[in-house]
Amino acid sequence: MPSVSLALATIIFVSGAAAGSLGALLGIGGGVFLVPLLHLALGFPLRTAAAISLTTVIATSSSVSAGRTGDQLINLKLGMVLEVATVAGSLLGGLTANLFSETTLQRLFGVVTTVAALAVLARVNRRNVVRDAAGDPGLLGGRFDEAESGGTVVYRVKRLPVGLLASFVAGNVSSLLGIGGGVLKVPALNAWCGIPMRAAAATSAFMIGVTATGGAIIYFGRGDLPPLAAAPAVLGVQLGSWMGLRLAHRLPAKWLKILLVVVLLGVAVLMLVRSAR
Amino acid sequence: MNTRRAPDTLEVLLGRVLGAGVMFSTIALAAGLVGALAVKTGRLTNALLTTGVLMLIATPVARVVVSSITYVRRRDWTFAVLTLIVLAELVASIVAAMR
Prior knowledge:
The complex is a heterodimer of chains A (277) and B (99). By secondary structure, chain A is mostly helical.
């Protein structure tokens, strides 16, 4: 593992800012970009890169959710239900992380980013369906006022077991690879469980803090989480997501999705090439 | 538009817990990082950095604890049990980390 000098700390900070702004811009968190930067470009072991990334995931999730209370997008009850599955997945991932070789984890990272890219690609032209405002959201559904259409969106949760399974897998992958898991959870909640995109993203962002915590605790306990390297990453990602959130409103959603697909596929190829060496 | 409800008090409370946790941990990490790089790595900077990381990790745990307490006080047993299960899973992570 490289030792953290002023130069390296600056590079980590800038990498964090780049990953954080891209992640916020695309609504998936910066981990999926930060881990390859730390691992492939800066030479941190994948486990350490994952551990550092998890701390940035906690920071992003917490500050984004803190700033979002009151706009009804976070579905607390659904989040609390899915957290049971996602934290179980993350606990299992943390416990088994050192059973896998680095090559296996690199391959898994490549596969997960490819799957996420395809999931986004399949929905490039899809718009959210605005449901009947007088409808009953049920126990776990929700409603929020949507600025774009000027109406109230009401949704019910469909296929909860699928949502639970997706959350478990996302939690597991999150711990193993150091990503928030939003790349898997948001498309699953949106496509299969009937949650509108914005509510799915906000609820996922709320959950990933606690998902990342399960894994981060275990990495910290095992000495795989160096605070001196995590500090510039956390600070950079916070700055980056702040910038990204401000830019996100100015770019059309379709181009954001296409950019996301291209970047995810690029990350996948880099990881798979490295694993083949 | 008259459909807008008052924000859920729990949501506001959790927002405060998360915001405070991130703020204090960010301050500790920034102070520790600047100290370690500008002056030198020592016991104080290490303590600041470790405190920052631990506070960050503790923030979502605190959020789950506050949720559990709130649901118990509201006698909403379904969600009290669900959040307590999440808490138990986090405690299991801590136990696993200390072995």
